């Protein structure tokens, strides 16, 4: 792929993204000075970006503090069902059927982000990953690997080229595993992100399009956890199929 086609980060885009996320995470809003510290840029540069984002509805200003505006939500409405829509009650039911915690996950650029969770996790330190929607590297999570496997091929090539600049061995391993992930529609992580966690991901679909992933997790102790997750995934897939028919 040409240099033009590679998915390289862009400083201005990164700054805009950081500003929007910082505003989204603070219900009371953030000041330009606080954003400048977050972004690591001069306040004058951040002020210019903030002004543009406020002018286009991505930010709202009140008493000198900026909150996330309605524009991101409107874009999702225009695009249709971009983000998988599974209610909390549905996630809790899926967790009950599977017998494990269930995480709803999407791909955001080069990261996997948990949108919500059903059930109680037996590893308390994992709870903030879903509750605070913390980003995790794609290739270090079962969900990220699944979502990347079902990303359109040209986009996937660009993402892998970018990831290979920093972690070529992990990218090479994923490329070898890619055909099996696509064929089985299942992805696994045996301690990739956390040495104590086994995880298995299955796709969430909107018609033929994979829009997200459901992740089942277990404390990692040995081969028995892999078999337990297999059984949990089978129960979950059967339940989902039954609801569709």
Automatic annotation (TrEMBL):
It comes from the Bacteria. InterPro entries: GAF-like_dom_sf (IPR029016), HTH_MetabolicPath_Reg (IPR050707), Tscrpt_reg_IclR_C (IPR014757), Tscrpt_reg_IclR_N (IPR005471), WH-like_DNA-bd_sf (IPR036388), WH_DNA-bd_sf (IPR036390). Pfam families: HTH_IclR, IclR_C. Signal peptide: none annotated. SUPFAM superfamilies: GAF domain-like, Winged helix' DNA-binding domain. One of its GO terms (molecular function) is DNA-binding transcription factor activity. Keywords: DNA-binding, Transcription, Transcription regulation. Residues 10-70 form the HTH iclR-type domain. Residues 64-245 form the IclR-ED domain. This is IclR family transcriptional regulator.
């Amino acid at each position: 792929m040409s240099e033009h086609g590679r998915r390289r980060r862009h400083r201005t885009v990164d700054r805009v993204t950081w500003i929007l996320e910082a505003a989204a995470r603070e219900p009371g809003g953030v000041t330009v000075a606080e954003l400048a510290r977050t972004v690591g840029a001069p306040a004058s540069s951040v002020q210019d970006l903030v002004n543009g984002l406020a002018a286009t509805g991505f930010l709202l200003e009140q008493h000198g503090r900026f909150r996330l505006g309605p524009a991101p939500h409107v874009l999702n409405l225009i695009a249709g069902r971009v983000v998988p829509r599974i209610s909390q009650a549905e996630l809790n039911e899926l967790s009950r059927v599977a017998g494990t915690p269930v995480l709803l996950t999407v791909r955001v650029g080069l990261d996997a982000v948990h949108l919500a969770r059903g059930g109680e996790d037996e590893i308390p330190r994992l709870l903030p990953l879903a509750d605070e929607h913390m980003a995790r590297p794609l290739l270090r999570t079962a969900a990220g690997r699944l979502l990347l496997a079902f990303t359109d091929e040209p986009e996937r090539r660009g993402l892998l080229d970018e990831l290979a600049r920093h972690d070529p061995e992990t990218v090479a391993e994923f490329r070898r595993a890619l055909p099996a992930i696509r064929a089985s529609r299942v992805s696994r992580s045996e301690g990739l992100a956390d040495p104590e966690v086994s995880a298995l991901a299955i796709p969430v679909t909107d018609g033929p399009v994979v829009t997200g992933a459901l992740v089942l997790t277990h404390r990692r102790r040995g081969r028995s956890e892999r078999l337990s997750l297999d059984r949990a995934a089978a129960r979950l897939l059967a339940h989902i199929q039954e609801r569709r028919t």
